[in-house]
Amino acid sequence: MAIRAVLWDIDDTLFDYGAADRIGMRNHLDHEGLPDSCTGVEQALGLWAELTERHWARFAAGECDFQGQRRDRVRDFLSRPLSDEEADAWFGRHVVHYEAAWSLFPDTVPVLDVLAGEYRHAVLSNSAFDHQDRKLRVLGVRDRFEVLLCAAELGVSKPEAAAFHAACRALDLPPHEVAYVGNEPDIDARGAADAGLFGIWLDRRGSGDRPDLTRITGLAELPAVLRGDTRFGAVSSIG
Predict the structure, then answer these.
(1) What is this structure's pTM?
(2) Helix-helix angle 17-32:84-100, to 10 degrees
(3) Please, are residues 7 and 182 in contact by the beta-carbon 8 Å criterion?
(4) Are 24 and 114 in contact (CB under 8 A)?
(5) pLDDT confidence of 1, banded at 50, 70, 90?
(6) Residue 143 CA: distances (Å) to CA of 101, 146, 165
(7) What is the number of H-type helices and E-type strands within the chain?
(8) What is the pLDDT of residues 199-209, one digit of tens each?
């Protein structure tokens, strides 16, 4: 049966989270200084990325709330027993630089334009609604998505089937009529496929090595894949 809706991941799929995070933290450290455990900026950026992954995993597993994972990242990064207020203040100063670096990937708006008349669109994110809703509004694309669901409010996160099924229920569509597009091969594409959706791995880095997954290396390839022209090596229909 044909795909009727596209369910999207946000960070590192539509939104260039990796670049914004590095640029924002680099500028933040220019003002704050390096943590005592780091001798250079690249080491500090690597530590921040490692801690972000670790504490996001805790949040996704329900071990802490959204604000808690932020506070714990700051405490671990600075190796200091900060109060909640102190950790929030440090992270708040970081957010100013991070948000100044926000941008969509260049292929995001073109593919949304191409697909607008053929498919419904929604978002499923392992984040919090207020955070992602504001992000999409600032980036100017919130009105492209009729549904926005996030793990913090759902109480379940990708790759659990319940998260994908909640989005399908919100769209009032069966899973086999919904495609999910995300940058994580297992959390996004494999999780979606196991839940009965058409899972698509957006492998922007071209790392490959997952023959079990439907893979694209850029969003220009997505329209052909959704239309069933091909699931591999799709020809761009954008630009």
Answers:
(1) 0.86
(2) 120
(3) no
(4) no
(5) low
(6) 21, 7, 22
(7) 10, 6
(8) 999 999 999 88
